[in-house]
Design brief:
By secondary structure, the chain is α/β, with parallel strands linked by helices. The protein has 14 helices and 13 strands. The strands form two sheets. Strands 3-2-1-4-5-6-7 form a seven-stranded parallel sheet, sandwiched between helices. Helix 3 runs parallel beside helix 4 and helix 7 packs across helix 13. About 45% of the residues are buried.
């Protein structure tokens, strides 16, 4: 059985943790999971299968210039434990820290898996070093075609060898129907995402809901699952809109399937994506999706509107209008589920070909 060491920035809250868990369950490989920072959600760790071993390492890499030296030290420490049998190192987070650790562990055989909108990587002051390290990667994995195309259209990527690119769609496994019931008391729209205003467009979501006809707001609540650093700001937006009785922040929900099964519509307001596991999960439960046509991922997942409704980024009127259209013409649950199944089958096949 092949062995890899996956390096992640942390193991907390995000969809990337679900991606790794699904990957480990689907491919017969052995995985050492090395975390740069100690922040974890125990329930996510508990979901990891037995072929994943979480490496205990005493160093927490600071988010500062000193972090570069610490990251190199973490990589060297792990390499010493390998006794000459150093596995391929896979950077599985969109951070310089995790990429540097991967490169230090195995300079000749390291991969980098990109999960975000590539343009977001340019926001970091250290992006020139990030691109330099990507140039030495044996492979760069992308989770959507649009993501790869955007990455290689950037001027920073012109010196990188595109023949090293690998397509690995994210996928779901074990997304069976849940028997748990959601006790809300009335129909509702549902959204699940980090409360992070850098990448999630809560201002547009809240404003678009407010613009809906009174009859629709009276009938449908909006429930939002998730937590994050911007919780208080999002809560304040809801209060200022006068919607405290209509929009509810649920906090972290470990299993969103009952909500996805019960919701009338799934609303995905995002500024930036690389794929969107949330949309794939919604489709897998038969939900009708209304999503921002943001870079990148949603349009590809929904096949440009064939399997869900799209609105232009930050378009309050567009989102409000598409919600009303979706209420009139929802997608059949079987159509949504078949789309999710097809995407997941493609993703599983590509990951097995790449890693097994």
């Amino acid at each position: 059985m092949k062995k890899y060491v996956f390096i992640m920035n942390q193991f907390k809250t995000g969809g990337v943790e679900t991606v790794l868990t699904n990957l480990a369950q689907s491919v017969e490989i052995e995985i050492d999971l090395l975390l740069a920072h100690p922040e974890t959600d125990q329930y996510l760790l508990d979901r990891l299968p037995s072929n994943v071993h979480v490496v205990e390492q005493p160093i927490s890499v600071p988010r500062s210039a000193k972090g570069i030296l610490k990251a190199i030290q973490v990589g060297k420490n792990y390499r010493r434990t390998c006794q000459g049998q150093v596995p391929v190192a896979i950077n599985f987070s969109d951070t310089l820290t995790s990429l540097l650790i991967a490169r230090t562990i195995n300079p000749n055989h390291y991969y980098s898996w990109i999960h975000c909108n590539p343009q977001a990587l340019l926001n970091a002051k250290t992006y020139p070093l990030y691109w330099h390290l990507l140039k030495g990667a044996e492979h760069v994995a992308f989770i959507s075609k649009a993501q790869e195309e955007l990455f290689y259209s950037l001027k920073q990527s012109r010196r990188l060898d595109q023949s090293k690119a690998i397509q690995c769609y994210n996928f779901l496994i074990g997304q069976d129907h849940s028997d748990e019931e959601v006790k809300v008391g009335q129909p509702f729209f549902f959204s699940a995402a980090r409360l992070d205003l850098r990448s999630k467009d809560y201002p547009t979501l809240i404003a678009a809901y407010k613009k809906l006809p009174v009859a629709i707001k009276d009938r449908y609540q909006l429930l939002i699952a998730g937590d994050g650093d911007d919780h208080d700001q999002v809560a304040k937006m809801i209060e200022q809109a006068g919607l405290n009785d209509r929009i509810k922040l649920l906090g972290t929900v470990q299993d969103v399937r009952p909500y996805l099964q019960a919701c009338t519509l799934y609303l995905h307001a995002s500024i930036s994506e690389g794929f969107s596991m949330a949309i794939l999960e919604a489709l897998s439960q038969g939900a009708t999706v209304v999503a921002a046509d943001c870079p990148v991922g949603p349009a590809e997942l929904l096949d440009n509107g064939k399997y869900g409704y799209l609105y232009q980024l930050r378009d309050v009127d567009g989102l409000s209008d598409q919600i009303q259209v979706a209420l009139e013409k929802p997608f059949a649950p079987t159509v949504a589920k078949e789309r999710a199944q097809k995407i997941s089958q493609t993703g599983i096949a590509s990951v097995k070909e790449f890693l097994a």
